[in-house]
Amino acid sequence: MCRSGRIIVKITQLSALALAAVMAVSAPMAAHAQDDETIIMLGGPSSDPFWGAVQQGFNAAVEELGVKGQWTAPADFNDIVPVYTRMFEAAIARKPAAIAVGNFFPEPTEPLIKQAAAEGIPVVIINSGGAKYGELGAIGFIGEDSYQMGYQGGKVAVGNGVKNGLCINQIAANPVLEQRCQGYIDAVTEAGGTAKMVILASEDIGNSQKVQAAVSAMLMQDQSIDGVVTLGVAVAVDALESIKLVRAEGRAVDLGTMDLGNTVLEAIDAGEMSFASDQQPFLQGYYGVLIPYLYNKYSMAPSGVTWVGPYMVTKDNAAAVLKVNKNIPGSRGAN
Q: How do strand 311-313 and strand 275-278 relate by DSSP bridges?
């Protein structure tokens, strides 16, 4: 094993011990109903590079803890609500050791979380929609403070002089993304500026030509826009190309994003982007296995939310984070 491999194993093992040390019995202790020893994690679309880092954390935990695990995810964003719902229903039907699931779409997802919990299946909510995890019967939530993800990014944008900001939301049905936008909007307006959220068609994600055309149209429609924040790596990379065109005409437009990838990190280090609010997806995947593993073995669960973001990346630390992502590919986002 290479040196970097030994380092990450030691870190994750220490994380497991530290997390176990602060755990307390807090969730309803329903009788476990497992017919299957597998821990199933329902991730986001495989086409979104963010989820590669979540899956890497999941795979590392499965290997290091010696448990059975299954990663399940939609291929893309097309019909994502019904597709994700059917995947969750299928996972419950297996009566697995545990399910880690994102509460991206509360209307169809929350009744299923309650159903799984009622059937004695430990459920951990990851990434999105964890504010009501106890009420839903889940044993914990691992993820970001969505409002702060946007708010802290907005603070960086304001420091760069942004007075008219645009938050581009690519999944209108996900309230977590609205919270991110609201945080960004509040940070800009508190400083005396203005900002708003706009919706990008989710089916266009992955089609660079359509995304770039949409962002260019937004910038042309309002020539006073001097700040843009995107809510994912793929959209950020495409938005940067559109913003480079208006910058070439002498217009100053700040760009930040949520989540990381090598392209984003390189752009921040080069000064082409100002920030990325990182929710540390590797930890979401790792803890999404670790917490139910400890729950099933010791009947323990966290006494509160496990926050893993925001971790702010700016020009000050982008090079160091990029080095880690190149040494341990995908651990901090897309390669």
A: antiparallel
- In the block, residue with structure tokens 């009744």: 111
Q: What type of residue is 232? A: G
Contacts of 38 (CB under 8 A, 6+ apart): 68, 69, 70, 94, 96, 97
Report the C-alpha gap between 282 and 17 in whole angstroms.
17
Distance CA 312, CA 331 (A): 16
The Cα 276–Cα 320 span in angstroms is: 14
User: Do residues 77 and 235 lie in contact, with contact meaning Cβ atoms separated by under 8 Å?
Assistant: no
Assessment of whether the complete model's pTM goes beyond 0.90: no
Q: Are residues 119 and 81 in the same domain?
A: yes
Domain that holds residue 88: 3-145+279-309
3-state helix, strand, coil in the chain (%, to 5): 50, 15, 35
Distance of CA 202 to the CA centre of its chain: 16
CATH of the domain at 299: 3.40.50.2300
Are the C-beta atoms of 243 and 217 separated by less than 8 Å? no
Q: What percent of the chain shows pLDDT beyond 70?
A: 88
Helix axes 233-247, 262-269, angle to 10 degrees: 40
Amino acid at 69: G
Give the amino acid at 171.
Answer: I
31, burial (CB in 10 Å: exposed 0-12, middle 13-18, buried 19+) = exposed
Residue 7 pLDDT exceeds 60:
no
